[in-house]
Amino acid sequence: MTICLIVTSIIGVFCQNNATPIGDCMTFPAPFSMTVCTVAAEQLPVRASWYNPTLGGVNCMEPCAYLGDGTAVQAAYGWAIACPDGWYGRWLTIEHAGRWQCRDHGGAIQPTYGRTFTANGFVECWWLPVDFLTHDAPPYAYMLLEWKG
């Protein structure tokens, strides 16, 4: 069955076959055969990734010198992250990473369901990807982290 997730404060509906329902859900019978769930963004962990626009390629879209909100990349290393659409200016306090501000976004920055590795082994769950603007991979890269903000 298809699970569609509506995350408050994020624009869009995100659907995945055979996903685990989360939040407040309503199931629709055939011919729709889907479950629609609503959840607050804060109920999902973030999955940390990182990017460095000076490396080019998948790390940026031209011009690589500026983030999506117009902030100069060189001035934003170590405190700016790419977040879901609509979160520009929002500050997040992220487990193991500290306080970061949403200044950019990307096509893959949307609620995601999948299999990922944790300290307890592999799990399948929903998460919010965020990309940390850093010169090198941070020690918490590719981890699921709790957050508030």
User: What is the straight-line distance between the termini?
Assistant: 32 Å
| Helix-strand pattern | EEEEEHEEEEEEE
Q: DSSP helix count?
A: 1
- Spatial extent as radius of gyration: 16 Å
Give the amount of beta strand, in percent.
Answer: over 45%
Shape: globular
Uncertain stretches of 5 or more adjacent residues: none
Structural class: mainly beta
Instruction: Look at the structure and give the mean pLDDT.
Output: 92
Largest sheet: 8 strands, mixed
Q: How many strands?
A: 12
| Domain module count | 2
Specify the helix fraction band: under 10%
Would you mind describing this structure in some detail?
The structure is a single chain. The protein folds into two domains: 2-40, no CATH class; 42-148. The protein has one helix and twelve strands; from the N terminus they run E-E-E-E-E-H-E-E-E-E-E-E-E. It has one helix at 73-76; strands spanning 2-8, 13-17, 24-28, 34-40, 46-51, 80-82, 91-94, 98-104, 112-118, 121-133, 144-145, 147-148. The radius of gyration is 16 Å and the shape is globular.
